[in-house]
Amino acid sequence: MIKDMKLVSLFLTCTNTVEADTIVKELFAKKLVACVKQTSVDSTYKWQGKIESNEETLLIMDTSEEKFPEIEAVVKKLHSYDTPVLTAYPIVKSSIGVSAWMRESLSD
Asked: Global pTM?
């Protein structure tokens, strides 16, 4: 049921804009996201015992929690990292009309 849909924002870092754009196109083609924001970020993280720093492309994706497994499958298929970091955060509040628009966008 559309009204019971749990809305979330997903965060995903990608190697670059080419990889990010490829993932975004596939997610929209499969109707898995309502909106995606993309920005460059400087990331610092520990990987295989070393501190790494890289410029990455961050995707912030608005979707429903129920679509997470399908989105994760697309990311695993298209992402270059051994361990892509895809995380979900519940949308607790939003501006008037936003949740209705997201629900409508995701139910097409």
From this structure: 0.91
